[in-house]
Amino acid sequence: MGRTLQLHRSPVAVEIGVSLERALQIASQMTMKTTSETTSLQEAAGRILSDDIASKVDDPRFDNSAMDGWAVRKDDCPETSTKLRIVGTSQAGSDVTPIVGTGEACSIMTGAPIPEGADSIVMIEDSSYQDDFVIINGPARPGFIRRKGENLREGVVGLRSGTLLTPAGISLAATMGHGQLSVKIRPKIAIIGVGDELTSPGKPLAEGSIYESNTFGLSSLVEKMGATPKRFDLIRDSIDSLRNALDEASESCDAIITSGGVSMGKWDFVRRIMEEEGVIEFWKILIRPGGPPLFGSWRGKPIFGLPGNPVSSHIVFTVLVAPWISESMGSDQSIGPRLSNRVRVLMEEPLKGAPRKLCMRRISIRLEGDSLVASTKTHQGSGNIHSLVAHNGLSLLPPDTDCDQGEIIDALWLH
Ligand code: AMP
Ligand code: MG
Questions:
Q1: pLDDT value for 313
Q2: Which residue, of 217, 219, 224, 341, has the fewest CB within 10 Å?
Q3: From the CA of 404, how far away is ligand 1's center (Å)?
């Protein structure tokens, strides 16, 4: 744990310089309050279920064929070729099927009901026709019959509350007969960029200005989490405009994310205003990049003050804010990457760690033979957002630990 300090006018002792695990722990004590809403299945992808969903039907609903072919009696089909009389066809969607007696076969399509009397399927590829007869040249397989209820029985819960609705989950909800689902509302999250030097992309740049990028990156990260971002106009380095923006954000949103202004600089007004008028729970995390974030509340709403450096704000969102949003929304799965989803990678080159800090260098992970190998491609500066595009993972080098070439280390595989 880091040290604690009584900040100026802050009523409680603030933890300063905490581990990432401790930061997650502190933040999880103040989550967003989320309610539920009903949505159509079509709209439910990427949302989080707020009720258990039980199947309204048996899946499959009836015994059916897994193959196009012939429904037969296994006893009629020894290993050598056999001639069976064709008694009809069973089609998917039809409800009248012929009865298969001894020495008979029924043509059958994938998904079609198994005719009475048949107990096995012969694949169409293992047969040939001769007038009203079929010559069976391959095995008759009971295993090609999909049994009623073998996937899910009526009344059994197939999707649990808290499940992130992946495309497969949506398909399963449909299979179980649900046209509408109860899902967690999308929390609204304010995104506020702070800095005198910032200019919106597309506008002319004055001397000394730079294009602002963080509010765009953070908005899309928030959206990816199934929440709704509300981007605010850029805020100058001024206490009054920051206060106005934070007030408006706390009234209209469920949580607030700021970027910039949380370090030790004279113009780091987010830290200052939080120190003087907000509540800070922790400040600074023992990670590199992304050391200076703070977490607390503004007028009762949770607020993450992220660093201004583009890579830092992105990484802190990924490892701290994303799991917090997941948890707030009652998700039982990781929507974004989590530290627990680490992989082991073999580094192709040495990596420098950081004193006292978990070091998350950008790395490119790929599968080579049986192992995951990783390398670095670009300059690693926390201002270099290109490094997050050029790589697909982050090293998780423990504090005070360098990595030699050929060493196997923990990493997060991001995309
Ligand atoms: P700060 O945390 O305000 O000291 O900013 C650290 C660095 O990040 C400075 O180089 C800023 O110019 C840059 N920066 C701050 N906010 C943004 C932003 N929204 N988009 C891009 N760069 C930013
Ligand atoms: Mg600044």
A1: 98
A2: 341
A3: 32
User: Minimum-distance ligand to the CA of 311?
Assistant: 1
Nearest-CA residue for ligand 1 atom 15 is 308
**pTM over cut 0.90:** no
Cα distances (angstroms) measured from residue 86 to each of 9, 73, 117: 90, 13, 14
Per-residue model confidence as pLDDT tens digits over 322-368: 999 999 988 876 667 777 789 999 999 999 999 999 999 999 999 99
Atom of ligand 1 nearest to the CA of 262: 2
CA angle at 324 for the pair 322 and 327, rounded to the nearest 5°? 110
Which residues on adjacent β-strands are paired with residue 305?
Answer: 258, 294
The answer to whether residue 13 scores a pLDDT higher than 80 is no
Structure token digits, residue 388: 């997050």
Q: Whose CA is nearest to atom 14 of ligand 1?
A: 308
Q: How far is CA 274 from the centre of its chain?
A: 31
For residue 335, report the distance from its CA to the centre of ligand 2, in Å: 30
Question: Is-contact 122 30, C-beta < 8 A?
Answer: no
Mean pLDDT for the chain overall: 94
Which residue among 192, 194, 196, 198 is best mutated to probe the pocket of ligand 1, counting the most ligand atoms within 8 A of its Cβ? Answer: 198
What's the distance, CA 277 to chain centroid?
A: 35
Residue from 191, 209, 214 whose mutation best tests the ligand 1 pocket (most atoms within 8 A of CB): 214
Q: 4 pLDDT exceeds 60?
A: no
Is the pLDDT reported for residue 2 higher than 60?
no
Backbone torsions φ then ψ of 77, nearest 5 degrees:
-120, 80
**Angular region, 17: left φ>0, alpha ψ -120 to 50, beta rest:** left
Q: Which of 280, 166, 139 is nearest to 226 (CA)?
A: 166
Taking only the tens place, the pLDDT of each residue in 18-58 is: 999 999 999 999 999 889 999 999 999 989 999 999 999 99
CA–CA dist 68, 19 (Å, integer): 59
First to last CA, the chain: 31
Q: Can you tell me the mean pLDDT for 281-298?
A: 97
DSSP letters for 82-96: EEEEEEEEE-TT---
Work out the angle between the directed axes of helices 239-252 and 269-277 (0-180°, nearest 10). 70
**Nearest Cα to Cα of residue 20 among 291, 362, 365:** 291
Per-residue pLDDT at 7? 52
Match 């159509």 to its residue by tokens: 40
Pocket of ligand 1 (CB under 6 A): 193, 195, 197-198, 210, 212-215, 259-261, 263, 265, 307-310, 383
